[in-house]
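Input chain follows. Return structure tokens only.
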Amino acid sequence: MEKKFVTISAQIPSDILNSLDVLCEKYERSKSYFIRKAIESFLENYSKKDEDNNKKNSKKINNVW
């Protein structure tokens, strides 16, 4: 199945943009590539933390009952 891409817009501090520009030049990749990878990583990590919190809360509830 082919992925559909959409365009988004965000405001970021200029120092982050400068760091991103350096990274893009060094690795010859686009800003979109690194931003996409950063969001994917964040979502994966956030999802894991959310799952861990749900397990902890489930254990607390089970201990109460």
